[in-house]
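User: Hi! I'm working on a homework problem where we have to compare a predicted structure to a textbook description. Could you give me the structure for the chain below?
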Amino acid sequence: MNEKNDTQDMVVGLVGLGAMGKGVACNLLAKGFEVVGHDVRADLQGWIEAQGGAFAHSLAELGRRCRVVVSFVVNDAQTEAVLYGPDGLVGHLSPGSVFIACSTMPPAYVQRLGERLAADGIHLLDAPVTGGAAGAARGSLTVITAGEKAVFEQVRPVLEAFGANLYHLGERHGAGSQLKVINQLLCGVHLAAAGEALALAQRQGLPLDITHEVLCSGAAFSWMLGDRGPRMRDGRFGDITSAVDIFVKDLGLVLATARESKFAAPLASAAFNAFLAVSGEGRGAWDDSAVMCHYARQPYEGESPAPGQEARPS
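Assistant: Happy to help. Predicted structure tokens:
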């Protein structure tokens, strides 16, 4: 572990040790932070201790030990439970503590959450991320923040440990989540479009390995095609980094936001329906590249992930 410097003289709590949280934990530890993790899966105690961190068996314990908490749970319901559920953090975090919410959540919920936490003497940093599990492992995530500028600067060293690109949109909570919703609109549409294109190539009898290589070599390239395309090509939908149901959730947020704004979003709607159809066929826990199954209805290798391999993206 690297030596700590003055800016790293803090204990960082990390809630959610899934695909994203593990990468974040490793980067925080590598930068010299003391990390206390918590997850509903108690078996992860051994994992984080092997990396050099500590494990809190309850949220109350984590709250008593940390003044900065980074949350990588799945959604607003889990965030609510982490903060206000039985044995939640609120009531155990000391006044002036900072809660960094990195989950993709409804902007209206995040805005209200900032007001509620302020009443409890806790600062909220609205800080959703993009870059996936690979970005978390590399420490190259993009972090989209909103909240008090002084709080952002206070925890900047924490954010820089796992984020290569930090953006501060202002002090209005919910602004970071609004931009993350826009990000997920493009990610979902790009991913569904990649699945549709490769499924059509497959239907026409084209070799998928060469097709994917050609599409990635020119103007048709997208990050989603490059990252998820190999799994689509090989039908490896049990190699899970993020699940189909995560995009059902995220594109649902996109459509709810569009509806509130009286904004037509036909491409987002089509992508949502593709993910929802695959989930409805019992494939919601498969890797999100399985959206291709909506367009290419035939058996694939590994009809479902092995027990315990289901995606738990945070």
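For your comparison, note the following. Strands lie at 11-15, 34-38, 54-55, 68-71, 98-101, 123-126, 129-130, 141-145, 163-168. The first strand starts at residue 11 and ends at 15. Good luck with the assignment!
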